[in-house]
């Protein structure tokens, strides 16, 4: 499938050069791999990191799957599971960074598979890896943006009085409409030049870092009742409502929260053709995004878990947040302290913005993968999806990614 000849150098329509006049190392390596520079190489190492960091998005993953962690194992699963998943994720990231330094192309994993599998197995390895990667990316975008749509529904519910106060509960059709509107915004933003995306990516990274630190300190400080250190570090919840009694199996299921959160760092690889000196800055983006996410994520998990005092109540579908655990934590923390849950709703707004940025960066990564995959002729109508516009943006791939992610969410209607 990857048909380029490593010994063939293709001319580029513009030459990205360093301040000393030498050709950008990532640009030069791309030419060595047989690819033409078509995307604008304008991202710094900070911007490259920002895309992966905002896709990992601790506020997104932990918030949306905290219910799963509390149900399966509770504090022990979410606290210790975070480090277990983080350690294995870092090992994978280190390996990917090493390969990325040699093959800094937007194709990322599928291109690497072709080169590492050898001539005999290259087509199969590249094809299977590419399709798993791109379908998985579309599914991630679907999941992130649908999670935001659900959170908006919860915010509306709490803002109108909560489930026990006659609050408005949006139908599944309205949630799908929210999902479609969010994807539309993401497609429009991703149609902008890469310089604008770079700005939004850095803003997203800053929002995630600041948001985590604010919430991890604010929520347990505001809560009138806090869990003990013994509860946070030793309590194992076996009351999962699924009839599962095996502690090992329960713990493994509880790991899903951490595993779901610590994904998406391959975005740094998919953005390499737009990153300066990508053979060094791409790997830096992968490793730094994982490492910093592990650190700030642990702080967020601790802060939130210290505000947990009654797991069954948080998971009860009849509570004010309709069973959305973290929303209930935020809302009740402020309501118990000040008599009003408005502060908690504002905190949920902070999380919602982080999820929005996560979805935005996910569409960016999706589109670059689709662009590279179609450039190698691996997708139906490949000539259409790898076209770039005057701003050097793979515009068709952007809208394709948004459309497929919308279609994937339609299954909830059935």
From TrEMBL:
MF terms (GO), sorted A to Z: gamma-aminobutyric acid transmembrane transporter activity; L-alanine transmembrane transporter activity; L-glutamate transmembrane transporter activity; L-lysine transmembrane transporter activity
Chain spans, region Disordered: 1-23
Any Pfam family from its record, for instance, is AA_permease_2
- This one is known as Amino acid/polyamine transporter
Q: Which organism is it from?
A: Trema orientale (Charcoal tree)
Gene Ontology cellular-component terms for this entry are: membrane
Q: Any transmembrane segments, and where? A: 45-66, 78-100, 121-140, 174-199, 205-223, 244-265, 285-308, 342-363, 393-413
Sorted keywords for this record are:
Membrane, Transmembrane, Transmembrane helix, Transport
Where's it found, cell-wise? Membrane
Grouped into one coarse class, the protein's main location is membrane
Kindly give the membrane topology term recorded for this protein.
Multi-pass membrane protein
Q: Which PROSITE patterns match?
A: AMINO_ACID_PERMEASE_1
